[in-house]
Amino acid sequence: MSKPKLLIFAPREEPADLLTRLKDAGLDIGFGEKAWQYPRTDYEADLAAAARDTVAMMGTSIRHTPITRRVMEEAQRLRIVAKYTVGVDDIDTDAATDLGILVCHAPTESNCFGVAESTMAMILGVLKKLMERDKDVRDGKWREPQHGTTFLGARADGYGGITIGLVGLGRIGTRVSQLLAPWRVKVIAYDPYAEPARFLLAGVKQVDYETLLRESDVVSFHVVLTKETRFMFDEAQIALMKKSAVVINTARGKVIREAAVARAIAEGRLRGAAIDAFEEEPLPMDSPLRALGDKVLLSPHSASFNEGGELRPGIQWATRSVLSALNGQVPDNVYNKEVIPRWRERFGGAGALG
After folding, report:
1. Extents of the domains making up the chain
2. What is the CATH number of domain 5-105+308-347?
3. 268-281 pLDDT tens trace
4. Overall average pLDDT of the 334-351 stretch
5. Edge-to-edge, what's the strand order for the sheet holding 205-206?
6. Catalytic residue IDs
7. Tell me, which fold does domain 112-298 have in CATH?
8. How far apart, in Å, do the first and last CA atoms of the chain sit?
């Protein structure tokens, strides 16, 4: 009898000890092609063929060849898709739910808190003009008027400090609020899915989205990509903001409309932006964001990339989730929780590992 198959659809230097653990559990491990992650053509058929006989899939981001309904329908024994990362926008979660397949993600401290720390670095980098100051010194300029920066916190002389608006108050947004606490800035947040107690515990004021846009000097996005959040920041939202405001996006590229942001900055309707995630990755060479110089800080979707951590905690969590699901148990990090009753009907209590 052949071993149940696990497809690592987007490999990312999986530690040998975790691979051994999966093999010792009785799994036959296959690895996806690197080309699937950055294709020049459509690899959906190839991914579907590779997944056809699998009982589980796991891996890092695979946005260019997403795990579609077709891929999951052809994998008729598939029980679980487990991500090493926080985002699941490269998986058709609605289809997974329809088909009774668990989708698990990995909101680990390494991932989430790494993004929160990078967000802080971006806020400070933009408001303290680190790029501009560095460039001016290299160009022979010294302490000129344009070197003046924004003071963040409230002062005893009556200066009230700036307002920072967090869109999304999950693990990352909450951590950003904690990191901001010593700075004596006003922090407001919008999250229609967070209970009131979360705002209280985070020490932030709960507001609606339009109020946040109007009042904030910095707007920072910390949402997953869904039908509701896709391009939730576009021309209409920019029109509500202060011309001196800054936009930070360490969430997902398609949360903000890049062309609208670039146009607003070029026309002086926004001060600047710092962006880690883009609509298309790698960022195209003809992107209008590239023409804005030091008004935009660009990062290669690496906000969670930390020395000594990076994806290993996420790989550990995905490994644990796969083994739990294949032993007939519901993992502790299911993203599409509404699928659990149907999944239990199909697989609950019935192990796939023999």
Report:
1. 5-105+308-347, 112-298
2. 3.40.50.720
3. 999 999 999 999 98
4. 88
5. 205-206, 186-190, 163-167, 218-221, 246-249, 272-275, 296-298
6. 252, 281, 301
7. Rossmann fold (3.40.50)
8. 11
